[in-house]
Every structure is written in structure tokens, then in C-alpha cells.
Amino acid sequence: MNASDSLGITLPYIILVVKNMKKYFSFEIQIQDDKNITRRFRSSNYQSTTRIKPFICTMPLRMDDGWNQICINLKDFCKRAYGTDYKRTDRITVHSTCRLRRIYFSDRLYSEDELPAEFKLYLPVQQSTETEEA
Fold first, then answer.
1. How far is Cα 92 from Cα 15, in angstroms, rounded to an integer?
2. What is the model's pLDDT at position 134?
3. What is the CA radius of gyration of the chain?
4. Structure confidence by residue, pLDDT tens digits, 89-125
5. What is the predicted pLDDT for the residue at 97?
6. Domain-wise residue ranges, the chain
7. Is 117 helix (H, G, I), strand (E, B) or coil?
8. Cβ 54 vs Cβ 109: under 8 Å
9. In order along the chain (134 residues), what is the average pLDDT of each group of 10 residues?
10. Locate the CFA20 domain: which residues (predicted)?
11. What dihedral do alpha carbons 36, 16, 68, 110 form, nearest 10°?
């Protein structure tokens, strides 16, 4: 992979807002660690156990009905799975059937009050106001 092919995102948290379509769903995040080794984290709702291999870690995913917010601390995952430090995210691949509202990265987890409306799990309901006729 060329450096130009990499997302090059160094923020440690990735958040995916996806709708459970009650079908098989998986996503994969390709990262590079401080040893310059490319590793992948794959999560899916059709897998029941976590497996850690030298270059890929696969994990089960359980989603509720409707919209789900999936938050992953890549720095923590990298440290726990491989004993190395997270450097950057190179690629994200979303497989299978889902509705995807948003994928974003952040430096930390933010509370619902701190997020803009379009980044929230549930969008605020807009209430219409009736105007009085004169």
C-alpha cells in the first residue's frame, strides 16, 4: 500500500452509526502500529468468538434492533491484542448489508450533549409550529 492510498488518520476512536438490517454484517479496520506492522480488526455479527492471529483480530458483534452506535478504541484494541501502540488507520471496509449513517474518528469519546445533531445516534425530532393567521 502506498502512503497515498492510506487514510492516515491518527485519531484513536472510530465510531460507526449503522442500522441493524437483521442480515449478516461485518466491517474491517486496517491499522498500522508503532512497529510499522499492518494489522486488521474485523468485527461481524455471524461470529461467536474472538480470534487473534499475527495480522488479523476477528471479533463478534452484537447489534440491537434499529440504529446502533459502534465505538472502538483502536489504541486500546492494538495494545490488548498485540502489545503494540496504535499509529494510524489506513483503511476501513464495510461488508454486507447495513444502513450506514456515519463513520467518524475522534480524539476521545464525547457525550451526546457535546456532539452535533448529525453525529448523534438518534437525530432530534423537529417539531412543526403552526403560524397564526391574522
1. 12
2. 45
3. 18
4. 999 999 878 899 899 999 988 777 887 777 776 655 5
5. 82
6. 1-33+65-105
7. helix
8. no
9. 80 95 95 97 95 97 92 96 98 89 90 77 55 47
10. 3-122
11. 90
Direct distance between the N- and C-terminal alpha carbons of the chain, in angstroms, rounded to an integer: 67
pLDDT score of 132: 46
Cα–Cα nearest to 103, from 24, 45, 40, 18: 18
36: left (phi over 0), alpha (psi -120 to 50) or beta: left
As a three-state string, the secondary structure of 32-91 is EECCCCEEEEEEECCCCCCEECCCEEEEECCCCCEEEEEEEEHHHHHHHHHCCCEEEEEE
Q: What is the pLDDT of residue 98?
A: 84
> What distance in Å separates the CA atoms of residue 134 and residue 132, rounded to the nearest whole number?
6
The DSSP annotation for 7-36 comes to --B--SEEEEEEEE-SS-EEEEEEEEETT-
How many CB atoms sit inside 10 A of residue 18's CB?
Answer: 20
* Order of all β-strands in the sheet with 51-52: 51-52, 56-60, 38-44, 25-33, 86-96
